[in-house]
Amino acid sequence: MINQQLLSTTDYQLPAHIAIIMDGNGRWAKDRGLNRTAGHEEGAKVVRKITSYCAKIGIKYLTMYAFSTENWNRPKLEVEFLMRLLEKYFKSELKTYLDNNIRFRAIGDLEKFSKNLRQAIGEVEEKTLHCTGLTQILALNYGSRDEITRAVNKALNDDKEITIDTINSYLDTSFAPGVDLVIRTSGEVRVSNFLLWQSAYAEYFFTKTLWPDFTEYELEDIISDFSKRERRFGGV
Ligand code: IPE
Ligand code: IPE
Ligand code: MG
């Protein structure tokens, strides 16, 4: 039965903010003799499934790495496919967000995307602004170094003194708390320019599962494990 234990247990320390590096779509497809794009399509379904699950169990923030500032280096056809997939996703997902009381926010430098895609993103952001359950944040043309650089430049432009609080308030994620738990699928043990500032004291989990195979059961196990970790934040 899905998350029966998690839903009925009160002594779980639920992370307020989970961040996921969704990796392994290409390898999932290759293992099946399919084109890499089939892996991305399957991966998009898992985004929907995991987001709904997080909303259901009461997670407040879920950030998912969908497209990095470095992913433009992929073959043109794959990048074009991903852009079309994103547009399709935003056009079809509004109902899922509203039905589940999910607020949607995008982070990253959206300027590089087509007008159509930016419009679709803006529309979902606007129409879910009133939702009070989970906030799902998609990282799109996102890179931590790029985000921090943009934040510092904006703060300097506004004649601000550069402090930790100033930087926090100029980051794309200014509306969200720091990250408690970072999960990366596919067996790679690296962070690939994801939320470097926000994850300063996050707990990390790496699983060999490829993103299209990731399930709410595995997430439940990870959350259970997370709740047992002792976080010290530099204290004793
Ligand atoms: C993650 O899967 C999705 C994106 C980066 C868009 P990959 O496409 O990186 O899959 P692998 O790592 O090649 O298997
Ligand atoms: C990280 O995955 C980016 C996303 C999941 C969107 P990559 O597959 O691009 O990362 P590297 O190249 O293995 O570091
Ligand atoms: Mg990858």
* Fraction of residues in β-strands: 5-15%
In whole angstroms, the N-to-C terminal distance is 39 Å
Summarize the biggest pleated sheet: 6 strands, parallel
Name the bound molecules.
3-methylbut-3-enyl trihydrogen diphosphate, magnesium ion
| Structural domain tally | 1
Figure out the total of helices: 8
Class per helix and strand makeup: alpha/beta
Low-confidence stretches: none
CATH topology: Undecaprenyl pyrophosphate synthetase
Tell me which CATH architecture applies here: 3-Layer(aba) Sandwich
Q: Report the mean per-residue pLDDT as an integer.
A: 95
CATH evolutionary superfamily: Decaprenyl diphosphate synthase-like
Spatial strand sequence of the major β-sheet: 3-4-2-1-5-6
Query: How many distinct beta strands?
Result: 6
What is the element string, with H for helices and E for strands?
A: HEHHEHEHEHHEEH
The rounded Rg comes to 18 Å
**What percent of residues adopt helix (DSSP H or I)?**
40-55%
Instruction: Supply the CATH class.
Output: Alpha Beta
Oligomerization: single chain
Shape verdict: globular
Task: Describe what this molecule looks like in 3D.
- The protein is an alpha/beta fold and 236 residues long.
- The protein has a single domain, classed as 3-Layer(aba) Sandwich (Undecaprenyl pyrophosphate synthetase).
- Helices cover 44% and strands 14% of the residues.
- It is built from eight helices and six strands.
- The chain has helices at residues 4-8, 25-31, 36-57, 76-99, 115-127, 144-157, 164-170, 216-228, and strands at residues 17-21, 61-68, 103-107, 135-142, 181-184, 203-206.
- It has a six-stranded parallel sheet, sandwiched between helices.
- The longest helix has 24 residues, at 76-99.
- The radius of gyration is 18 Å and the shape is globular.
- The N and C termini lie far apart (39 Å).
- The model has no long low-confidence stretch (mean pLDDT 95).
- The structure holds 3-methylbut-3-enyl trihydrogen diphosphate (IPE) (2 copies) and magnesium ion.
- The site of one 3-methylbut-3-enyl trihydrogen diphosphate has 10 residues, from α2.
